[in-house]
Design brief:
The protein is 2% helix and 47% strand. It is mostly beta strands. The chain has two domains: 355 residues, Methylamine Dehydrogenase, Chain H, CATH 2.130.10; 78 residues, Immunoglobulin-like (Sandwich).
């Protein structure tokens, strides 16, 4: 996807659970939101941030956020992962619990698509039409006939001729080149769509569904399909009206979403669904408790509602909060915001779209990084003090200079935001503390040592 707007604009957006990504046409990747497992790709697990910051990951074709891990498909057809690895979701054969830097998934080449929006597993589609999976497998979501987690990619049984893939929390979907849909994993709500509620560790065909153009899996247990006739079909969990058919009853076979024709794009979140029609109108249904529709209220709906405030949308991504990429190159966000995933500098949810500012261009990089700051307490101090930093840099260093500009102390590779600074026989007087990366200074604070 490209956007003809200016020299530096977002071209890809993606959401994980409580965090967000944007990839720009100047080959930069920006991230914000929850970072407790290093899922933002900054090389650390510092606290969440509520505004976009660039990371060092480049050459991206697609990016996917999951529960507390992330995946990218690079332009050399390799897959790279980072974040939590409790179930092997890094896919590199490692047993480490977390990686703050990207690692390459093992033995994957010729990859054309990835899907990783689930809680603990990922799918990759190869150019030969086969599907590969790794990570959590408690309900058979890897589709290889077992219920054993795998920290390396394993081939999904019997599937060939696949052209699209999708991932929910505990189930997976694949679209074949004959326009049929195949599913596997947890089926307690009927999200496999085969007329049963029986979990399956191998792919089963969705009942009575043909002529499918695109698919979408949703993290809380329902699935969507867009047919070539521009109608939308749904199955699985429906407590909040996720199926959009005017009821709140689960269905283990596809049912048509009410009122929608002329649909060109579908997308899903946790337990809500979205569609864009060929007249560029935007529609939402399901759970709306965090303002997930963006329509200014928090009422659920079991039929699609038009969101009049959103126009010109060309891409949607959602997992509890929602990002929208508009045809003017701007990114808008709404919904949950506990960890700053809306990227507007607050931690307050919004039930109307708000623009994500400071993306892509070099001026915004400087402006965002200059939001770093240092607080010192106590100051003045006589023996030791605590330095508190808003440190979201990759290789940050705290440098202490005397009043003549001479460096007297450095603390490198800061792994957290709080640093204990001891006096270490320094003379009393005025000093300056700098937060730096690659010889660039992003924050400065005065420090006074007293006897």
């Amino acid at each position: 996807m490209t956007v003809a707007h200016g020299q530096s604009s977002p071209t890809i957006i993606s959401t994980g659970i409580d965090f967000s990504f944007a990839v720009c046409n100047n080959n930069t990747t920006w991230a914000w939101g929850k970072n407790f497992s290093g899922q933002l790709g900054f090389g650390n697990n510092n606290d969440s941030i509520n505004y976009p910051i660039p990371n060092s990951i480049t050459n991206i074709i697609s990016i996917e956020g999951g529960g507390d891990h992330s995946y990218v498909l690079k332009n050399d057809s390799t897959v790279w992962t980072w974040g939590s690895n409790g179930w092997g979701q890094l896919g590199n054969g490692s047993t480490v619990t977390v990686s703050y830097i990207p690692v390459q998934a093992s033995s994957l080449n010729g990859i054309t698509a990835i899907a990783g929006g689930g809680y603990g597993h990922c799918l990759a589609l190869k150019n030969d039409g086969t599907v590969w999976a790794w990570g959590r497998n408690i309900y058979g979501e890897l589709g290889n006939g077992s219920y054993t987690d795998s920290n390396i990619p394993v081939q999904v049984n019997t599937l060939t001729g696949i052209i699209a893939i999708a991932v929910g929390n505990y189930h997976s979907l694949a679209l074949k080149n004959d326009s049929t849909v195949w599913t596997w994993g947890y089926n307690g709500f009927g999200q496999l769509g085969n007329g049963t509620n029986t979990t399956s560790n191998i792919p089963v065909q969705v009942t009575g569904l043909s002529g499918v153009l695109t698919i979408s899996a949703h993290s809380y247990g329902h699935s969507l399909a867009l047919k070539k006739d521009s109608t939308v079909w749904a199955w699985g969990y429906n407590a909040s009206g996720e199926l959009g058919n005017g009821t709140n009853t689960d269905s283990n076979v596809p049912v048509q979403v009410s009122l929608l024709t002329g649909v060109t794009t579908i997308a899903g979140g946790g337990d809500q669904s979205y569609a864009i029609k060929n007249d560029s109108t935007f529609w939402a249904w399901g759970f709306n408790g965090n303002g997930n529709f963006g329509n200014g209220n928090n009422a659920n709906s079991n039929i699609p509602l038009q969101v009049n405030s959103l126009t010109g949308i060309i891409a949607i991504s959602s997992l509890g909060h929602c990002l929208a990429l508009k045809n003017d190159g701007t990114v808008w966000a709404w919904g949950a915001n506990q960890f700053g995933e809306l990227g507007n500098g607050t931690f307050t949810y919004s039930n109307v779209p708000i623009q994500v500012n400071g993306l892509c261009n070099s001026l915004s990089v400087t402006q965002n990084l200059l939001k770093q700051n240092i607080s010192i307490s106590p100051n003045p101090f006589s023996s030791q003090t605590v330095l508190q930093t808003d440190n979201f840099l990759l290789n940050a260093t705290l440098t202490v200079d005397n009043c003549f500009g001479q460096t007297v102390k450095q603390i490198k590779n800061i792994n957290g935001q709080t640093v204990l600074l001891s006096r270490d026989n320094l003379a009393s007087g005025l000093y300056f503390v700098r937060l730096t990366e690659d010889n660039k200074t992003f924050a400065t604070e005065k420090l006074l040592i007293v006897d």
